């Protein structure tokens, strides 16, 4: 299609010959064929477009060519395909091989078409323009030239005719060409119209195809939407179907279960029915039995009616008796009430008697003098036995051997006073200078003597009144004296169990108990504790921080209140016996203990536990200040006996202990002498121990010394020394104890 307009777009070009026309025709044919081919590619609407121009089909060129050809054939004998015209036309444009024309028309044609420079190239000896140039006088040549000129002239005249015919032909051809051009223009116009229409149709077609495309897209979208909706609906339908299936399955299961349940119920009912039938049978049998029983019973009832009558009369008699008893009970109740009142009065009396008894006890103590001495002998312990080469077996022979050994080791100590337990007799045998055995027997009397079998409770029973008197406002001092390993610590502190607990925990418990009881009488008590150790004449606070506190403690006495204070020593408020027990445990772990030959756990220091108790009677306004000092003295053995002479530190310890113990003896002796002389100086300051216990050792306080003795024969001499010291103390009267009581 695009080639066709280009062919017809140059109307000014020289008209082509038949070959050109045929070429054009073939080109047109080709173009039309291509058009047809292209038309084949167009949408199917295109034939409809062409149908509107059927009267002028799109193949006019082919018809026009045919027409032209037929016309040419009809008007002249010379067909257009003759060679002359093309040669002429060609010579006009490109070739100049023909001879020059002689006529003016041919000359002019020649001169207008041929270049003069090219003519001599064919014939060199002939001038081209012989007629107009200078004439050479060569006669032969002139003749020949004349002949040629004649020939040319005849040729020209002959061809002039031909030329005229050709010009006529040319004119005819020109008119044909004009026709063809007109036809061509018409066709071109038709073609342009067709193109315009085609463009319109193409535009329409593109619009339509756009619409189709849009429709396709919309259709695809709608299709997609529909597919999506459909899928969703299908999914929903599937879900619903699944739900329905599961619901249906559940319902089916429920129904099956229901059916099974019903079946079970039916079975149960059938079983019940069977049982009921059995029961009914049995009941029927029972009814028949009962009927016979009833007949028996009615007979028995008659008999019972008679019996009942008799019992009624018996009941009346018993009722009378019961009334009598009730009267007796009410009179007994009255008597009980009277007795209860009597008991209360007696209790009150007892309490008053207890108070009076305590007063009397104190009076007795005062009359007896304020230092009392108890003596306690510990049992022989397995640890006292020499360690055997072979370990003892648990057989009876092993036990007997141990007992025999104990017996052998035991000193000859007797307790003849079985009633009052106040006497101890020690027998010793020694060799005289003459080699004879000398037997000596020593009798000692104390306030109380405890045999090896005596328990802690028995010992405490004797000192409990003394201990609790601190609640009445007395200064009380209990100290344990004896050689190392004699049982001082055991007596004062005791063991871990309730039965083995010593005097300190028992005394504290007692004081708390008494304080609680005295609350009813309006007494309120405040208690505080202090635990000190005197080691090598240095005071160590056992309730302080660390094993040895670095502080230098000083002892201060207040003569007004007869109280003693130690500077920088911890005084802990006491609230319960349990708290006191834990305090004692802490203190015990801090005590300095050094090993000696005599006792592995020998305590090489004095320990002083002080319980201060201040009371206030809210009813009477009375106030009391008392203290309880519980002293565990260091071992009293002599220097050689302990085997410490070789050890410098142990020697110093022992010397210090012995010095303080002899100072204690000196103080007690001086107190005894003071009682006689009145103005005797008491050397309290000779040791830290006596200075600390000044207020508890003076005549205003109650003092108890517990002498602990070893039962071993090996320790007999030490025991005798201790017994003599205790006797001295016991014989000392140091005055009358005074209550620290004032009325506010
Ligand atoms: N009455 C007793 N009953 C049973 N065992 C006792 C008794 N008295 C003391 N003992 C035991 O004897 C050993 C020595 O006693 P304890 O340590 O009390 O002696 P001590 O005089 O305090 O010695 P130290 O001066 O070295 O402190 C301990 O094992 C103790 O348990």
UniProtKB/TrEMBL annotation:
Residues 163-286, 329-366 form a coiled coil. Residues 370-732 form the Kinesin motor domain. Keywords: ATP-binding, Coiled coil, Microtubule, Motor protein, Nucleotide-binding. Residues 56-88 have a biased composition (Polar residues). Residues 89-114 have a biased composition (Low complexity). Residues 1-136 are annotated as: Disordered. ATP binds at residues 482-489. Pfam families: Kinesin. GO terms for molecular function: ATP binding; microtubule binding; microtubule motor activity. One of its GO terms (biological process) is microtubule-based movement. The keyword Ribosomal protein does not apply. CDD domains: KISc_C_terminal. GO terms for cellular component: microtubule. InterPro entries: Kinesin-like_fam (IPR027640), Kinesin_motor_CS (IPR019821), Kinesin_motor_dom (IPR001752), Kinesin_motor_dom_sf (IPR036961), P-loop_NTPase (IPR027417). Belongs to the TRAFAC class myosin-kinesin ATPase superfamily. Kinesin family. KIN-14 subfamily. This is Kinesin-like protein. It comes from Pleurotus ostreatus (Oyster mushroom). The gene is KAR3.
